């Protein structure tokens, strides 16, 4: 017989959006259960070792950086900054971002949820969903061979790929292919250098290696994870030139290819680039970084025009301050900017399912076109939409007017 769990709010996914959603819902005094597929929290922030939080600060060439994210995201970032011993970095284009330590992110997330009284189920796989008319009635998960049934009052999908909507056959926003995946890995015991110098060395050496056919063209798509150079070690990120479809088979293919590329690249660097001659491969992040996937259709679909024209909405629950950032399999990256010193807003309707009355989404699952999610997917914005989804789900359980909750969220900007 299946074990049963009862909660007021269920959160799928323990990445930045899921952590924010669970903490926000629990702040209303509700019973909250978070379901996570890994044995730790953080999602891409820790499993893929992204290394920097983008979308926290105003898009501006002025210094120092100014927070655009709301109170919850700001408080989370400030604690992360203090415990990591890092400071925001700046790019001349006007972008600011915060480096962090992977283990600190895991600990900060766990501490926050424990303090909030959230129940966490690790190593869980979603394997069933039951619908009654226009509501999710229950979901099933498997944990270490045990089947568990969770009765649903409200549920927030923060899985990154709308796992619940996929399983339930609900309307989805999807593409034939998604942004290119990336693999982060570290090199240890490199020679003395600054990040800027090391970046120039890598760019020059990899370009020559491609021209001389020592390496395939995709090896030029290697970048340093900003702020990662310390103790003669550096984190690097390589793009994977394989189409991302989101299927289980595709994820396995990406992971295998990523490891082959990392080993080939590290061997080249050690043998051919003087500053790496005494270096060795440190470790490979346990998960390939998937930037975007399927999204649940909400009551409003955010568009790239909304982003680029800095659209504002009366039911706004988050501020977007990051440009449209797109990584293709055949190129390094393209950025499309909106007006400096401005921002766009994300309406609450993007977080509310168009087909299920008790389903909310956050993070990379929100209702948005490919172009819009290329901006809204970054962690600083995911923390905001996660927090808002938690508040909205809690208001649903407590039978409070949505408009009132939206106004309360806006007051915390």
What does the model show?
It is a single chain. With 413 residues, the protein is of the alpha/beta class. The chain has 2 domains: 3-175 and 293-411, FAD/NAD(P)-binding domain, CATH 3.50.50; 182-284. It has 11 helices and 22 strands. The strands form 7 sheets. The chain has a 5-stranded parallel β-sheet. The protein has a 4-stranded mixed β-sheet with strand order 1-10-9-8. Helix 1 runs parallel beside helix 10. The longest helix is centred in the middle third of the chain and has 25 residues, at 248-272. The chain is globular. The model has no long low-confidence stretch (mean pLDDT 95).
Which value, in Å, is the CA radius of gyration? 21 Å
CATH topology of the largest domain: FAD/NAD(P)-binding domain
Mean of pLDDT:
95
Number of beta-strand segments: 22
Please give the alpha-carbon distance between the first and last residues.
47 Å
CATH architecture level-2 label of the largest domain: 3-Layer(bba) Sandwich
Side-by-side strand order of the widest sheet: 7-3-2-11-22
Q: Indicate the percent of residues in helices.
A: 25-40%
CATH structural class of the largest domain = Alpha Beta
Domain count = 2
Number of helices: 11
Shape: globular
